[in-house]
Amino acid sequence: MKWQWLRQEIWWLAIWWLAGLSIVLATLGGLAAIAYVKYRQVEEAMAAPPPPEVPVAVGIATARPVTFQRTSVVVGTVLAPRFIQLRTELAGLVTALSLEPGQAVEAGQVLVQLDTRSEVAELKSATAALKLARAELTRLQSIASTNAVSAQEADVAESKVIQAEAEADRLAVLIDRKTIRAPFAARVGLHQLHVGQYLDAGSEITTLEGIDDYFDLDFSVPKHISQSMHVGQTVALSLGVMADGVTPQLLPVPIMALDARADAVSRTMMVRARIQDPPVTMRPNDSVRVRVAYGDPIEAIQVPATAIRNAPDGPSVFVAESRDGELRAVARRVLLAGSGDGTSAWIAAGVVADEQVVAEGSFKLREGSLLAPVEVERSRPLEPSRSVSGLAPGQDPMTVELP
Length: 403
Prior knowledge:
The protein folds into 4 domains: 1-48; 57-70 and 297-400, conserved putative lor/sdh protein from methanococcus maripaludis s2 fold (Beta Barrel), CATH 2.40.420; 72-80 and 212-293, Efflux pump adaptor protein, beta barrel domain (Elongation Factor Tu (Ef-tu), domain 3, Beta Barrel), CATH 2.40.30; 87-209, CATH 2.40.50.100. The protein is elongated. The chain has helices at residues 2-47, 117-143, 151-177, 223-226; strands spanning 56-62, 64-79, 83-87, 92-97, 104-105, 110-114, 179-181, 186-188, 198-199, 204-210, 214-221, 234-241, 248-258, 269-276, 287-304, 316-323, 326-333, 335-336, 344-349, 356-360, 371-375, 397-400. The chain is built from 4 helices and 22 strands. By secondary structure, it is of the alpha+beta class.
């Protein structure tokens, strides 16, 4: 019985072992089959031709030569050609007002009338005294030929006439000084004046800003810039941006005068320009940005500012070059001539005129990428009529601050 039981155990162990071996062999066979299938798929994929390269859609622009000058942007102040702080000469009670804040007044127009009743009454008395003195002088002169009056009496009568005339003139001037008129055509500033208000001599009334077809523009520049400036030269007044929301709107204004000396503290020179026919929104004491061109003209290549790719090793651009009938992207290191004007950049070296540069979509490119170009034009020079650098017509008067 013992050996029969042992034989039976060995039999079941053999069966289990053969079953496990069969499972292992089946698994290995399945894995080998899968590996063979994958191997054949890889071989077929490697033998197949490569897929066509997909071009990258980018915007390109043509590099153009430009001539520009160094510029410096300073802050200027708009001034009215004529401006006064209106004050009273004499003390008195306000009896009439003819001025409203913001009102335009004509030269000679009465603005404020102080109480002159006392002076008017005194003037009537002085006028009557003058009339009497003149009548007395005329009577004495008519009988002087008969030696009925002495020369002393005639001199006294003449002196009384002169004194009466002087008193009448004094009172007339006094009344005129209490009648405050606009000395020139102007616009009235704010005030807090009312009829019945008493004003001391020298009291401030309001301001008068002259109404003219131009404004003065005062700004200061460093000595090295003022040395190249002269009367008649134009500077550019920044009026914000154009319709595209990017390009600065510049108004050329001529320089009318340079100060005779530099500032004792800042060592800068004050310059005065003239804004002819200023915008209706401009007001005296406005703060504006002024772009001043100076130095010799500089030749450079103009490209859109979006074409410049800045990196730790320096700026670069992608140039579109034709290779075997295809347009490929080629990276180029460039040397910038300045910071540009916000929409354009100026390149001193690295790109030549008439080359095509990638202006939009350069972040999608790598060296040798196939390009699907779309023409863009975002780099345009200023018109010669808007030149601020004083260059001859036909040149592009672009301006930029060199480092």
